From TrEMBL:
Domain of life: Eukaryota
Ranges of compositional bias, category Low complexity: 56-74
Extent of the PPR repeats: 174-208, 209-244, 245-279, 280-314, 350-384, 385-415, 420-454
UniProt keywords, alphabetically: Repeat
Matching InterPro entries: PPR_rpt, TPR-like_helical_dom_sf
Family of this protein: Belongs to the PPR family. P subfamily.
Protein name: Pentacotripeptide-repeat region of PRORP domain-containing protein
Region (Disordered): 56-77
Chain coiled-coil ranges: none
């Protein structure tokens, strides 16, 4: 398992993003493990929403459908506070709203949205917002808050539906509302869609602010080639007269680190300082992450010393990233010293620092040392989500210690009742390598029970296993499922499977996999085309073989084309014989007289196809081909099928003369 790609990077990406200075609850220095997307709880949105709520409380003209002007209890009145408390306490909050409608104001409803959102009561939020829409108790802060929490609840479609339903154009391009919906989409991995929506918003009149750009930038941190997209946004914000702040720089540093752009990260770090933005721990951590890519511990040491000189104290995140630099630089003694320091400070309650060292030790071939760290972690009863087990199980599999890997997998299952895709793939690989079919089936059942969607690794593990166990049809069905779910097929593995399917009596399935590869918009190995032609010809699937030959004739050897041509003339669709011969001729393949003889014999055996035979003979004359003596005798003997023997005689005479002329030219040469 690639720990840095699955588990470690997500946590450090979180730590890389600095909070805006004006946030009411700035991120603390303490390290809290979260998923990557939960980070995107959008530090940037917090500022926008805070400003929005202040604005909402100072104006009533921004609501969608203002209520008639009536005397309302003041914000601090006991009546309003009691009404809000009653709604919060009710098991059915919406049922209380009609009774307090005359008391509450829009900002009270917005506060209720935030209350239910922070409590993760998604149903209540949706019901409350629906009621607010029906009764016109909305302003831009209402939309901003609701959309924000729909993003957190992984309901981007619902958020988009609400955004699209906003009737007021000016409200729809309100920067707070726009930032919320863009943040929602970024949080849920819809980066390309968020950029398209952003362009539409600008066309409609949106004036983006720094929060808008920092929100969009945060989406490109873990995306391949995200740096080029980020540069477009940076260029745009500068063209609008906006100046980058510490949050923007933090995002850029994180993007550089995730794209292995160490020099660019250093440039932005220095530029940020030159512009008067003092770096905080998050900026330092992002640059440390960039140094960790190639284990550049010398620069990392200098950076940490610089950080200490500036008065900042390394926290858990910094120390763990620093440990990663040493581990990737194969300075394992240094990394263990930092691990001991983390343990002494109480910063090693979870498995992350242990995983970093174990993973790099295992990849460097030091399996026994990795196992020692694993044992140390277990002795300290460190909280584990299974990643440490995954690292050691994978390392054991790579080292061929399959029984030990299988036993550790069983130990994990017995001790923990937690599974995610990474762990399931690790266990699946261990059981597949050990040939334990029963356990493999149990893991597949777990995937179904937990509604976990298999990824590329899952399919790849299973296909290799089924091939090794000679369960070729099952391997085919798994490949078909993999392709249907949009995963890229492995050409080498599929080529092997195509051959095995052909040899095992499944030519149609072999052809199906060939087509999956062909339609995946890639250039296939030349030998694969020839392999599938031979499989189809041997199975008598000549029409399918003709399709492959017609599309790939220049890539096929003369022997392969000859085998196909002879088989098709003997057994292929008689109505396609002429088409096949013409296709072979166009490919510069020199058709031999024996192939024409087989074709002529088949046509003569089917008098009803005399027109096709006549067309063939005329085509041969026009392209320099002549029938051999045995074919000529056969044609003359059966000339009556054409009605007039003279027709065949004239064609054969023309071919004979042409043959003599060609012979004379060859003799002269």
């Amino acid at each position: 398992m690639e720990v840095s790609a699955v588990y470690l990077c997500s946590a450090f990406a979180i730590g890389s993003l600095p909070p805006r200075p004006c946030l009411p609850h700035p991120l603390s220095g303490r390290f809290v493990k979260k998923s990557r997307n939960s980070v995107c709880r959008l530090f940037a949105l917090s500022k926008t929403l805070q400003q929005s709520h202040v604005s909402a409380s100072s104006t009533s003209s921004s609501s969608v459908s203002p209520s008639p002007v009536t005397a309302k209890p003041s914000f601090d009145s006991p009546t309003r506070r009691a009404a809000v408390a009653e709604v919060k306490a009710s098991p059915d909050p919406v049922s209380v709203l009609p009774r307090v409608e005359g008391v509450l104001q829009v900002q009270d409803y917005n506060n209720l949205i935030r209350y239910f959102g922070e409590s993760r009561r998604w149903n209540e939020i949706s019901q409350l917002f629906d009621w607010m829409q029906r009764h016109g108790k909305l302003n831009f802060a209402s939309y901003s808050s609701f959309i924000k929490y729909m993003g957190i609840s992984r309901s981007p479609i619902k958020a988009l539906k609400v955004y699209d339903s906003i009737p007021d154009k000016s409200m729809k391009i309100n920067v707070s509302v726009c930032n919320s919906i863009l943040g929602c989409m970024v949080m849920n991995g819809r980066f390309e869609s968020s950029m398209r929506l952003f362009e539409q918003m600008k066309d409609d009149g949106l004036l983006p602010d720094l929060v808008t750009y920092s929100t969009l930038l945060s989406g490109w941190i873990k995306v391949k080639n995200g740096y080029s997209k980020a540069m477009q946004l940076v260029q745009e914000l500068r063209s609008k007269g906006l100046h980058m702040d510490s949050v923007i720089y933090g995002s850029l540093l994180a993007i550089c680190a995730s794209n292995n752009l160490c020099e660019e990260a250093e440039m932005y770090f220095q530029q940020m300082k030159n512009e008067g933005h003092p770096p905080n721990v998050f900026h330092y951590n992002s640059l440390l992450n960039a140094y960790s890519v190639d284990g550049n511990y010398m620069k990392a040491e200098k950076l940490v010393n610089d950080m200490k000189s500036s008065g900042l104290v390394p926290n858990k995140v910094i120390m763990t990233t620093y440990l990663k630099v040493y581990a990737r630089g194969h300075l394992f003694e240094k990394s263990e010293e930092l691990l001991s320091e983390l343990e002494a400070l109480g910063y090693a309650e979870d498995e992350m620092p242990y995983c970093i060292i174990m993973d790099n030790l295992a990849k460097a071939g030091h399996l026994s040392e990795a196992k020692r760290i694993f044992a140390r972690m277990k002795e300290r009863d460190v909280k584990s989500d299974g990643y440490s087990y995954s690292i050691i199980i994978s390392a054991l599999c790579r080292s061929g210690l399959l029984k030990e890997a299988k036993q550790l997998a069983k130990d994990f299952e017995a001790k923990y009742d937690r599974y995610d895709l990474v762990m399931l793939n690790t266990l699946l690989r261990a059981y597949c390598n050990a040939g334990d079919m029963e356990s493999v089936m149990q893991m597949l059942k777990k995937l179904d029970e937990l509604s976990i969607s298999p990824d590329w690794n899952t399919f790849h593990i299973l296909i290799k296993y089924f091939c090794r166990e000679k369960l070729y049809h099952l391997a085919y069905r798994t490949t078909e499922d993999m392709y249907g779910k949009g995963h890229q097929l492995n050409e080498e593995l599929c080529s092997s499977l195509i051959l095995q399917l052909g040899q095992s009596g499944f030519p149609s399935e072999a052809f199906s996999i060939y087509n999956m590869l062909r339609y995946s918009k890639r250039t296939l190995c030349k030998s694969l085309h020839e392999r599938i032609v031979d499989i189809l010809v041997a199975a008598g699937l000549l029409k399918d073989a003709y399709i492959v030959v017609k599309d790939n004739t220049p890539l096929l050897s003369e022997k392969c084309l000859e085998r196909f041509a002879i088989s098709f003339m003997k057994s292929g669709n008689i109505n396609l014989i002429n088409d096949v011969l013409k296709a072979l001729h166009l490919s510069s393949y020199q058709i031999g007289p024996d192939i024409f003889h087989i074709a002529v014999s088949r046509f003569i055996a089917k008098p009803g196809k005399k027109d096709l035979l006549l067309q063939l003979l005329q085509w041969m004359s026009g392209h320099g081909y002549c029938v051999d003596s045995s074919s000529r005798n056969l044609l003359l003997k059966n000339a009556h099928i054409f009605g007039h023997k003279q027709i065949v005689a004239e064609i054969l005479s023309k071919q004979y003369v042409m043959s003599r002329k060609r012979g004379s030219r060859n003799a002269t040469k």
